[in-house]
Amino acid sequence: MKNPFLIILITTVSFYSQTKVDLRDLTFQVPSEFTQIKKENRELKYDAFYENGKIFIDSSIVEESPLIEYQYFENPGAGAERSQSVLKMLNEITAKDYKCDTLIIDANKNYSLARYNVFGKTIFEAKSLGEKGWINIQLFDNPKNDKSNFQKMLFILGTIKHSGPYGKEYNELMNESGNSSKWAILAFIFFLVVHFLRKLNNKNAA
Question: Which SS3 state, helix, strand or coil, does residue 159 take?
Fold first, then answer.
């Protein structure tokens, strides 16, 4: 008898067959119904590298829902703050303009998922932190599709692959600094031991 869980898994993967988006420091995938990818790189008020674009179901009906938009911000060297705090701060910035009725933050996986209601449309917004930057991904659609769109956003979040985990570069620098300090302490202790032994030898010789 076939494993029913395996059948469900295969069906889910088939339904969510993927359209891949390659950016500078990461990749992510969206359900295959979204096929038209348009990289825009329009001017943003940000002084570091960025990429942004839109993903449509049909390029002939652009700006119609459902529609996915993304913005990637490069931020090398980040990681001094806990991802929980960073994600909370980033979501608070968006919440200044739109009312958020749902916010999920997974600090272990360095991502968040929020839901907004804007002029009768639902916006699901995912944020994911990586070694060199973070990405925002928004799905715009009618509220009647909230349940399925929530699952689609979880799927998208699960496919994001950063060049490295959030805080990797910062932690490596801290480890190097910590190792340097350890060697300095060991060298100082060695100097004290040698100095003490010399004094002891001189005392015995006298």
Answer: helix
Give me the pLDDT at residue 153, please: 96
The Cα angle at residue 122 between residues 116 and 126, in degrees rounded to 5: 60
**Which amino acid is residue 137, in one-letter code?**
I
Longest C-alpha distance within the chain, in Å? 98
Task: Give the separation between CA 187 and CA 180, rounded to whole angstroms.
Answer: 11
pTM of this prediction? 0.72
What pLDDT, in 10s, does the model give residues 135-181? 999 999 999 999 999 999 999 999 999 999 888 655 554 455 444 44
Separation CA 72–CA 92 (nearest Å): 18
- Burial label, 124 (beta-carbon count in 10 A; 0-12, 13-18, 19+): buried
The first and second tokens of residue 172, run together, are 């490596």
Task: Find out whether 80 and 170 touch, Cβ atoms under 8 Å.
Answer: yes
